[in-house]
Fold these 2 entries.
Entry 1:
Amino acid sequence: MNGLKRILLAEDDIAGVELTLSALKSFNLANDVQVVNDGEECLDYLFRRGQYSEFPEGNPAVLLLDLKMPKVDGLEVLKEIRKTASLKLIPVVIMTSSKEESDRVASYELGTNGYVVKPIDVGAFVNAIREVGNFWAIVNDPPPGCLPNSHDLTGDS
């Protein structure tokens, strides 16, 4: 398989989005990062509703999901993903500022694949994004149902 897999970033903080995109690009980890700004938009993207109804089929290689988002919070998004047959195998990594044990426990009870507390230090944040992106978009070898369609990848066929 040529190219790198698509990442879906669900984050409502513009500075967080910009820093995450910058970190991923600086390490050449993702050719396609789709950004959604709240939980409702994330679900619309995954279910191909509204503005995303014409988007190509295929799930992202990983969803980087913030917990504290407007409209629909990250835990509700995770719950919907895990109860939907076509989405339940998508790796979901919670990326949050919350250090609350209850958030971490709830995330794992709902089936998150990882829980990363966003470091305050910019260098540490960039390194965390690099590690998460490297593992889920390059190293991880998901089953076929998790892979995006070939037209979602860059590189020559």
Note: Residues 7-140 form a domain with the Rossmann fold fold (CATH 3.40.50.2300).
Entry 2:
Amino acid sequence: MENRFKRDLRNYPLYFLLWTVLGLFYFSQGVTQRLVSHDPTPWWHYLLAWLLGVYIWALLTPAILWLGRRFPLERRNWLRPSAIHLLLSAVFSVFQLFLESALYSRLHLFPSAMKDFRGALAQLLVRGFHGGVFDYWIVLGVQWGVLYYHRYQERSQEVLKFELQASELESQLMSAQLNALKMQLQPHFLFNTLNAITVLVRQQKSRDAEQMLGHLSDLLRGVLEDVDAQEVSLRRELEYLQLYLSIEQVRFADRLCVEVSVDPETQNASVPQLILQPIVENAIRHGVERSSAGGRILIRAAKINGTVEVRVQDDGPGLSGPYSCEDQGIGLANTRARLRQLYGEDARLEIENCNGGGAAVTMKFPFHDSHRES
């Protein structure tokens, strides 16, 4: 409270300026009345009288502001403060008129109407008491208006702050969910690869096991370089895929044939990191592994009307019976969940049988240029 009172004192020049403007306004009214009534009183009497009155109010303004903070009007408690301020407004009005009367008699203003202090006080009480009460409430009204505006600004800032925090928390939650999906996906792939290496070791195919370990090391090194990235360029994603296919090529040798056809426009498209690996792994497991002669996998990517469309197709036996979300393994389930987290309703993952045999998984999501975003 003391700091606010000191701030009121620092704002004194502003108070005097505002009261001066009000005094000059009243002076113009008094001069107009003087001209109409042909009053012989010199004009400077009116000017000095009005300025004295408003400057006394200017001196009283800090005290009124302090009382306004001391007895604030609130919705739940307005009757008692209103009564207090009504009484105070009458006291301040009488006190201001008392000082003004003393100055009038001292400066001999309006000598014909106010010959002495008592006469001046009587005249001013009749003419100015209600105006003084009104001036007191004007000061309070301005103060409450400013306080209300400041509280409104503070509430608005708090709302913006909470909205920002909520947005940040939502972003963090989304990132945490995506990271959880990635952490679930990568160990799944890693365990499958280590299991394949174990099988090779048991079959005494140490050369193949060493080769697979080398490819796995290269893949993990590449993934760790972008460990914090939720999205990478399609070009980078295809590099991951080639490292993964090198591992699978050790297992299947000539039985695995992979064709990649990518539209040059999509090379820089942003795609979820490691989005292709689980889909291709699923195609190998359900297509190539089930055929003694092996199989072929086609990977295509194109930009269609601002949308990236990535299709992975195998030539295996295809899907048996109706396919539901419950039939998905970890890889496809996580892929669908990651697409939904990153792109919402703008992303789709479709699984279908192909006319010539085999199954196809198609992903569609908005095109974003990874170079521009970086």
Note: The two ends are 51 Å apart (CA to CA).
